[in-house]
Write a structure and sequence with these properties.
Elements lengths: L1 H22 L4 H8 L3 H10 L24 H16 L11 H4 L3 H17 L7 H13 L3 E5 L6 E5 L34 E2 L10 H11 L4
Parallel strand pairs: 1-3
Antiparallel strand pairs: 1-2
Bound molecules: zinc ion.
Zinc ion binds next to loops.
């Protein structure tokens, strides 16, 4: 009796997670991977529960470019916000997970990911980062191969750095003009972070780069 109750509960959670992911525009393949439900079940679920608020699902492959998160100042700021929330929700593992693409997806982590994404969207209803990109961000930060976590040398908040991109030492809220008047960053300040945040920003001495880079970021296009 107990076993069937547990199975029922696990199934209920999988369907709830699947519906939430579908609501946020996740691709069928993504929902399959995170819930363990079959493609057929997810398609049936998607058709059975139409929702007027559902984000339209994009066709094609899921996003795969980690450079996306830092390609404009606005995106870098939102990536920092979402990262902060995901760390708080333990959607990002404490220790590095080199094979996160394969081993991170699962029911419990998926529930945390959805919670983090929904908080991000509650704070920023017109947020730039799609759910599929949020999945990519969490996987990239679990692997810590291209995207890494570091502390801003000005405000000490946790920030995202791209190993292959400009090596900023200050977070997108502190550059190019330290301490702008509007500081959404305050929302996620003054918290202790778990392991995996770099204490020192290695190679990060290119202050002169910021000004040039800000200009480049202004002209870059949002996906
Ligand atoms: Zn900062």
């Amino acid at each position: 009796m107990r076993l069937s109750d547990d199975r029922y509960e696990a199934d209920r959670r999988k369907y709830t997670l699947a519906l939430s992911m579908i609501e946020h525009g996740a691709r069928i393949g993504t929902v399959t991977q995170w819930t363990g439900l079959s493609k057929y079940r997810i398609q049936t679920l998607s058709q059975s529960y139409e929702s007027p608020t559902r984000t339209r699902r994009k066709r094609g492959e899921s996003p795969s470019q980690p450079a996306y998160f830092l390609r404009s100042l606005a995106l870098a700021r939102e990536s920092m916000a979402l990262t902060y929330i995901a760390l708080q929700m333990h959607a990002i593992p404490e220790t590095r997970m080199p094979d996160a693409r394969a081993s991170l997806p699962g029911l419990v982590r998926g529930e945390r990911l959805i919670s983090a994404f929904e908080i991000y969207r509650a704070l920023l209803p017109d947020g730039l980062i799609s759910f599929e990109h949020a999945v990519l961000l969490i996987i990239e930060l679990a692997e810590r191969r291209t995207l890494l976590l570091a502390h801003c040398e000005s405000c000490r908040d946790v920030m995202v750095i791209d190993r292959l991109g400009p090596q900023h030492t200050m977070c997108p809220f502190c550059r190019p003009h330290p301490r702008a008047t509007v500081e959404p960053g305050r929302l996620w300040r003054q918290q202790q972070f778990h392991q995996g945040v770099e204490e020192h920003n290695e190679n990060g001495t290119q202050h002169g780069h910021d000004e040039h880079d800000a200009g480049r970021e202004m002209t870059s296009r949002h996906e």
